[in-house]
Amino acid sequence: MGDQTYGMDPKMVERIADEVKEVVECGVQTALVVGGGNIFRGMTGSAAGMDRASADYMGMLATVMNSLALQDQLEKKGVYTRVMAALRMEAVAEPYIRRRAIRHLEKGRVVIFAAGTGNPYFTTDTAASLRAMEIEADVVMKATRVDGVYDKDPLKHRDAVRLDNLSYIDVLQRGLQVMDATAISLCMDHSLPIIVFGMNERGNIRRVIMGEQIGTTVGSGDFIKKKTTTSQKT
């Protein structure tokens, strides 16, 4: 949305595409999971009285729209991409097939996973964790509007303290708003680290990839110590 209250800000889409391109140029295999809350959020529709499953499917369609917008900007910048959707819509996206997604990554293409898991009642966070495990990613990077995980909402509390390192259990027991519990549990079961960082500062995606300790690391901090190689997937 950028600074808008609804929809897509073309300048923000272009800026994200620029940052993804920088990561690809570092030789890192990159997959993206895009949400749809700027257009429609399933939980909000459900709270307003809509059937939860129907609302969630509408949210999945919103993620496809965002994915296509991002694909358009990336390809204008010379970055080859593939949108793979968990719902069948061959006219605009490939169906998600795990081996095909891995092959795209091996060929240097950016893969954009759309439509969540393809099932209602699951969040985009869970989709990101699931896809990361399926493609054997080294890390899940969650870009947000705040610069990490805090002990309470920093937008509401001036005395909120940022937490630089957390265990999966800490997040679950303290109810911290990193990802939903299902996503955290999936990452914990497979020792997949999560890095939460602010997306408002330009260049942060590349900084995380290059090993700078910014934001909050959940789980193993070993990823930060790795040297970027062509085998890494984010």
Layout of strands and helices, then pairs:
Layout: H1 10-25, E1 31-33, H2 42-47, H3 52-76, E2 81-85, E3 94-95, H4 98-106, E4 110-114, H5 124-134, E5 140-144, E6 149-150, E7 162-163, E8 165-166, H6 168-174, H7 181-189, E9 194-198, H8 204-209, E10 216-218, H9 222-225
Parallel strand pairs: 1-4, 2-3, 2-4, 5-9, 8-10
Antiparallel strand pairs: 6-7, 9-10
Secondary structure category: alpha/beta
Q: Please give the order of strands in the largest beta sheet.
A: 1-4-2-3
CATH superfamily of the largest domain: Acetylglutamate kinase-like
Q: Remind me, CATH topology of the largest domain?
A: Carbamate kinase
Average pLDDT confidence is 91
The ordered H/E elements are HEHHEEHEHEEEEHHEHEH
Q: Which bin fits the share of residues in helices?
A: 25-40%
The counted number of beta strands is 10
- Ends: how far apart? 23 Å
Beta strand %: 5-15%
Instruction: Report on the biggest sheet.
Output: 4 strands, parallel
Specify the CATH architecture of the largest domain.
3-Layer(aba) Sandwich
Radius of gyration: 17 Å
The CATH class of the largest domain? Alpha Beta
- The helix tally amounts to 9
Number of domains: 2
